[in-house]
Design brief:
This protein is an all-beta fold. The chain is built from no helices and 22 strands.
Length: 255
């Protein structure tokens, strides 16, 4: 049984404002708004708030949308910002955020990718500060998929011992926050499954499969900007018990 894919929408490559290190050439990030997919520089899935932040592509005069999606449901609020050049120091990089009249209103905190061993596959962004609120971002160096649906967050990480690891997070701020190597953040997951396999990687489409107590979990994601989309489905004895499409995701180009 296959997840229904969204209609393909051709999107252009995202020009980067500020320092190019904010994005990662090893991954692609997309968000779906009003039925259309758009390539964006980064997605921050919060570990200390029920939020997903998406930094939109730069538009006129470098203006960018910083969109906050509430979890669950993914209702959106946006604020217009401009991103300043990165200020590196001791392996950390801070990108200032300015409002449209030029006042600094926050920053994006990233790790220099060269400091992350054995190398980050997705943007190494660990926090976004806007006003007095700091949002910690879910980050692990070997992330292959980080996605949100209307009901949960999903992450797939490559491990040396157990193949691919699937973690799902219910939208619940009571999930304890944990620290990751290289300055990343995570939560104790609602569900974790080790030993996953990559069962399909044709035409830019990745399908990861996991089994747990008679249930089969399949995560499907596209790394092609001209045919974006993805989601998760769960079956038991061949019968579909869950199917959720992604509203936003980051996927590593390397499987």
């Amino acid at each position: 049984m296959r997840l229904a894919w969204a209609l393909a929408v051709i999107v252009a490559a995202v020009p980067m404002a500020g320092d190019a290190q904010l994005a990662s050439e090893k991954s692609i990030s997309l968000v779906k708004r009003d039925g259309h997919w758009t390539t964006v520089p980064l997605i921050c899935d919060a570990t200390n708030r029920d939020r997903v932040f998406v930094l939109g592509a730069p538009g006129r005069n470098g203006q960018m949308d910083l969109i906050s999606f509430a979890k669950p449901g993914l209702s959106a609020q946006r604020v217009s910002v401009r991103l300043g050049p990165g200020d590196p120091g001791a392996g950390q990089i801070y990108y200032p955020l300015f409002n449209l009249v030029g006042r600094e209103v926050g920053n994006i905190h990233a790790i220099n990718p060269g400091m992350v061993e054995p190398g980050a596959t997705t943007p190494a962004v660990t926090a976004i500060t806007l006003g007095r609120e700091t949002t910690n971002c879910r980050f692990a160096a070997q992330t292959r998929v980080l996605a949100v649906t209307a009901r949960r967050s999903i992450q797939i990480v490559r491990t040396e011992r157990n193949g691919y690891r699937y973690t799902a997070y219910s939208f619940d701020t009571a999930l304890p926050e944990t620290s990751q190597p290289w300055g990343g953040h995570d939560n104790r997951p609602s569900l974790a499954i080790d030993g996953g396999r990559l069962v399909d990687q044709s035409n830019g489409r990745r399908v990861y499969e996991f089994t747990n107590r008679g249930f089969v979990y399949r995560v499907m994601v596209s790394v092609r900007p001209d045919h974006p989309g993805g989601g998760v489905e769960v079956t038991q004895d061949g019968r579909n018990v869950l199917r959720e499409a992604f509203g936003a995701y980051t996927a590593a180009v390397v499987p």
